[in-house]
Amino acid sequence: MPDVDAVDLVGYAASALVVLSLTMTSVVRLRAIGLLGSTTFFVYGLLLGSVPIVVTNLAVGAVHTWFLRQELGLKRDLGASRIDPDSPFLADFVDFHLADIRSFQPDVTTPIAADCTFSLLLLRDGLPAGALVGCQRGEQLDVTLDYVMRAYRDSRLGRWLFGPGARVFRDAGISRLVSSPGSDAHRAYLVDAGFVADGDHYVLDLAR
């Protein structure tokens, strides 16, 4: 077996990072790991003195950086639109993602309960990215489903919805959101979005 020198190891590491990036379902993670891979390949090219490798990966790194800024920047096109809880589209969306949904909220069932009349379709660049369903009781919304597709979980869609996008709740007369913790990952998401523990549930009081 031939000896592997330090330069070769850099090349192998760069290749591994590029391959790893292609396995990511999260857009942000794909771009971030891809950027790390192209940076490592850039270093590899410098060590080899290979201008084509350096130039190519400088360009690839610039592309990843541009898309990351679009994904994480303030100009993201995020939205939330009211949708009929009985909508066939919403039912199909929930059914299709049900296994993934239950990994965060194990108690979610279908069809949507008749008393849960508040539902939102969450949008990213005009395309469906998630859904929220709840049972409204006066000014309180008991959230029964709060889901963002895997590809958009790093885009901070939830933080936007419960922050700048919270007008969609206030317009419906909702000032308080209550959610069960679900899995550890869902609990961490709620805390990141601003919910606070209150007994067995997590609560978010919306700013006026």
Task: Describe the protein's topology.
Elements: H1 6-21, H2 27-48, H3 51-72, E1 78-82, H4 88-96, H5 98-102, E2 118-124, E3 127-137, E4 140-148, H6 157-161, H7 167-170, E5 176-179, H8 184-192, E6 196-198, E7 201-205
Helix pairs in contact: 1-2, 2-3
Describe this structure in words.
The chain is α+β, with helices and mostly antiparallel strands and 208 residues long. The chain has two domains: 6-72; 78-205, Aminopeptidase (3-Layer(aba) Sandwich), CATH 3.40.630.30. It contains eight helices and seven strands; from the N terminus they run αααβααβββααβαββ. The protein has helices at 6-21, 27-48, 51-72, 88-96, 98-102, 157-161, 167-170, 184-192, and strands spanning 78-82, 118-124, 127-137, 140-148, 176-179, 196-198, 201-205. The protein has a seven-stranded mixed beta sheet with strand order 1-2-3-4-5-7-6, sandwiched between helices. β3 (127-137) and β4 (140-148) form a beta hairpin. α1 (6-21) packs antiparallel against α2 (27-48) and α2 runs antiparallel to α3.
